[in-house]
């Protein structure tokens, strides 16, 4: 029985009991790999062919486009990976249908960035029960059994990073007015960002005085910011969750002729980083939300199917969850992050 066939059989039997079994490495490690407790793993050496299906929301803003582009580029690096990419969609039913097609086509693994994690949970569970490892990206499923591994940005950490930076900038200003322009309020990731921001501000005696929500688009950012500026005659700092919608936020600020505050961005776009580097605008920082998550998903999917592990870990299987760091980019460190930034 091939490794892939064994993987699928084992996952079908045990998905409800031990999720990690679906990629269990029960045979002897291939040549060039170390066993449990070993040193190096030759992860990049060509191995058994892996067919990976990839589905994500529509690339209607820079960050999502960067996710998809990075995913394709990463897959192209491996001669043993065949990537099947379906058209990005914000239609939940269509995305469910796309995953159903991957299952019917018997792909070896699925990398899935769901438009809505809760809505895509049942079909992800179906894939896992069919023995197809699912790598969940960015927006979590409702069930821990719906994915073999999950790659996440640190949304709560984004809020903490942004709030900590605001606290440092407004040190000693107890009457400071802090505003927040969130993303899609119904998404857990937005809720986590807002919670982290509020928790960090609380540590220095500040709070969010004015808050509006947008939809991660330029148009929604401009509309939400215009409403915020009209409601708040004085602001000392604004944290905008997303640099793509930040293009609209900046337009609204310019139209209103406001410049008494500083801006902290979110996600880490190249245009915001260039403004930070030039130090000639309202943006003084942005908090990175990596657009490499899909690419990381490709690597994990390949390793899971081939029965390999991460070379920098002792464990013989891929991790259950990977949470990426959310650093603050300022003029002091912008040169480090700018080359990898996405264009809004």
Automatic annotation (TrEMBL):
Single GO cellular component term: cell envelope
Superkingdom of origin: Bacteria
Pfam families named among the record's database cross-references: Peripla_BP_4
InterPro entries: Peripla_BP_I, SBP_2_dom
PROSITE patterns documented for this protein: PROKAR_LIPOPROTEIN (PS51257)
GO molecular function terms noted in the UniProt entry: carbohydrate binding
The keyword Signal is annotated on this UniProt entry: yes
Keywords for this protein: Signal
Domain Periplasmic binding protein: 52-308
Localization: Cell envelope
Span of the signal peptide: 1-27
PANTHER family in UniProt: D-ALLOSE-BINDING PERIPLASMIC PROTEIN-RELATED
Family membership: Belongs to the bacterial solute-binding protein 2 family.
Descriptive protein name: Monosaccharide ABC transporter substrate-binding protein (CUT2 family)
